[in-house]
Amino acid sequence: MKIAPSILSADFANLKDDVSVVEKAGAEYLHIDIMDGHFVDNLTFGANVVKALRKHSELVFDCHMMVDEPEKYITDLKNAGADIVGVHLEATPHIHRVLSQIKASGMKAEVVLNPGTPVMAAAEVLSLVDQVLIMTVDPGFGGQAFIPETVAKVAELAAYKKEHGLDFEIEVDGGINAETIKEVAQAGATVAVAGSYVFNAKDPAMQITTLKEAAK
Questions:
Q1: Core vs surface per residue 175-207: b (16+ CB within 10 A) or e
Q2: Mean pLDDT of 9-28
Q3: Which is catalytic among the residues 18, 33, 62, 83?
Q4: Which DSSP string do the residues of 2-56 spell out, in sequence order?
Q5: What pLDDT score was predicted for residue 39?
Q6: Is 33 annotated in the active site?
Q7: Given this model, what pLDDT does residue 44 score?
Q8: Do 162 and 168 contact (CB within 8 A), yes or no?
């Protein structure tokens, strides 16, 4: 299981140091939540933060866009140093076009599904993407409780992936801790986003080790 600490729960005044801690601890991804205050109520990071952190980290920058009109941000994210860009199926009527645009730019493309969106709503683009993000909470804020029903969605997606011979990571985001990561790992998840569980702890590095062990 790859661990993707979410800087939504980090200390915004010390992002560089917090990123360094989780990188040294063995995290593979850095999850960067980009929110516009429209698709979700919260307003967070943009390409400027991605660019600032890129100078200080070799982690895979996993940029999760919770924005309306996501196509407007792709070029800026590419220029800032993003590696993976995730787009909500619910955020655009042109999901195939936007994912294709991400791929054409040289980044990896991810489709994101809210808890209330069925897996099969994304069936037509699953052969195109490098990663699928199953939201295990409703998007917009950190620190929410894991939604148990989303485990079945992870399992459904993993079964579809196997049946059709597809090759994409299955990421989960929301309420991930040492207990819930076991459930999603058994269901077929391969990447886990963890925010408050990592950054709200006294020893974030130990939390990453604990998650990796729990997911085995």
A1: bbbeebbebbbebbbbbbbbbbbbbeeeebbeb
A2: 95
A3: 33
A4: EEEEBGGGS-GGGHHHHHHHHHHTT--EEEEEEEBSSSSS-B---HHHHHHHHTT
A5: 80
A6: yes
A7: 82
A8: no
Q: How far apart are CA 139 and CA 133, in angstroms?
A: 11
3-state secondary structure of 187: helix
Q: How far apart are CA 145 and CA 14, in angstroms?
A: 26
Q: Which of 55, 1, 9, 52 is nearest to 31 (CA)?
A: 9
Q: Catalytic pick from 36, 62, 83, 173?
A: 173
Give me 180's structure tokens. Answer: 């819930």
Residue 118 burial (10 A CB sphere; 0-12, 13-18, 19+)? exposed
Residues 105-126: pLDDT tens digits?
999 999 999 999 999 999 999 9
